[in-house]
């Protein structure tokens, strides 16, 4: 069904899905498709220049003040969970975390540094009473509190904050991209590394994966990754609970319980 995003005569525009409802597919007089986004961050231009997202073609300000950005619509596929073991994923994520250009742009648009203490305090505030009494939640919060003194890390870079395999795209030309940057923050790279390794990489392969990324697997890094993956798992539980998506909520509660067992937390 066509939507009311008026780019002028000759354009066809359709919703592209997504949580925000601000993404579209557009085509002008049957030519190549474009991916459009309404009011995207100026961060997109730097991501495009760095080759992290598909190329930015143009930016247009509408009469109502909205800004529309257009990127190449690439033929390709989302990565599957097994694909996350690929060397290319480690290399691209390392490039992102170590990019001075990305970091400077996030600082310019007012992004603040995420510190573990603030993350923990914010998390405890949003936990509903029914959730805060769940055994797995209680044990997890205790784990986060006990390990908080050991989590501060000197180096902070740009973190995507949602490295789910669905956000990684491989084009038909074998070009890898990481998309959906609305939640990007300045934080310890372990915020991304923890979920990615725990969700997708066999533990006996962590050292090799991190070698491709450019890091050594140390006790300090492993502790930080554990902290952030517990934090993000609780955040996912809260998100699904608030949306009344009970099946997903139960799955994440089970995942948290399994994680606590693996970490020997009780």
Account of the 3D structure:
The protein is of the alpha+beta class and 266 residues long. The chain folds into two domains: 11-73, Phosphorylase Kinase, domain 1; 78-262, Aminoglycoside phosphotransferase (APH), C-terminal lobe (Aminoglycoside 3'-phosphotransferase, Chain: A, domain 2), CATH 3.90.1200. The chain has ten helices and ten strands. It has helices spanning 43-49, 87-97, 100-108, 116-126, 129-132, 135-147, 190-200, 206-213, 219-242, 246-262; strands at 11-15, 23-28, 34-38, 56-61, 67-72, 76-78, 157-159, 168-171, 176-178, 185-187. The strands form three sheets. The protein has a five-stranded antiparallel β-sheet, covered by helices on one side. A three-stranded antiparallel β-sheet has the order 6-8-9, covered by helices on one side. Strand 2 and strand 3 (34-38) form a beta hairpin. Helix 2 packs across helix 8 (206-213) and helix 6 (135-147) packs across helix 10. 26% of the residues are buried. The model has no long low-confidence stretch (mean pLDDT 87).
Would you summarize the structure shown here?
This protein has about 270 residues and is of the alpha+beta class. It contains ten helices and ten strands.
